[in-house]
Amino acid sequence: SHGTAASAHVPPTANRVGRSADRQPSIQPGARRVREKLAGKDLGGQDLSRVNLRGADLRHTRLTGAKLVQANLQSANLSKSFCSGVDFQGAKLGFADLRGADLRNANFKDADLWGANVDGADLTGANLAGTILHGRGEKTVEAQPPENPDAPPPS
To answer: Would you say 48 and 26 are in contact if contact means Cβ atoms under 8 Å apart?
Structure first.
């Protein structure tokens, strides 16, 4: 006998999952808590309904056309994110940072935006029906402008 072969058993590496920094994150609808780094990622068109993104860093993230129905985005940083056409129906966005975000044609029906900062955000064509609104920045979202801004407040 000549003994054992030098290359006896090499453990398979095919089962190891490598993560690429550029790879598009895959988040399942209803995920309990997302801890992945998402700033600057492309999540456009994904169904992120009921996902818990509370406090998530989503700065400069592309969410164009994504579905975030009933998602938890409380205190999330969405500043300068691309959210045109996003469906935020029933989402929790309380105290979210939406400064400079592109929110054109987004659906905020029945969403909670209490305390959200929308300074410089583009809300052109956004649906704000039934939305809970009170801003904390210099610019606050109002469903309808006051009838006469120069009139004294009712006593």
So the answer is: no
Task: State how far Cα 104 lies from the chain centre.
Answer: 14
Contact 77, 53 (CB under 8 A): no
- How far from the centroid of its chain's Cα atoms is residue 125's Cα? 19
Whether the full predicted model's pTM is greater than 0.85, yes or no, is: no
Q: For residues 99 and 83, what is the distance between their CA atoms, to the nearest angstrom? A: 12
Q: pLDDT, tens digit, for every residue of 72-85?
A: 999 999 999 999 99
Main-chain phi, psi angles of 92, to 5 degrees? -100, 110
Any residues with CB less than 8 A from the CB of 132 and at least 6 apart, and which? 111, 112, 113, 114
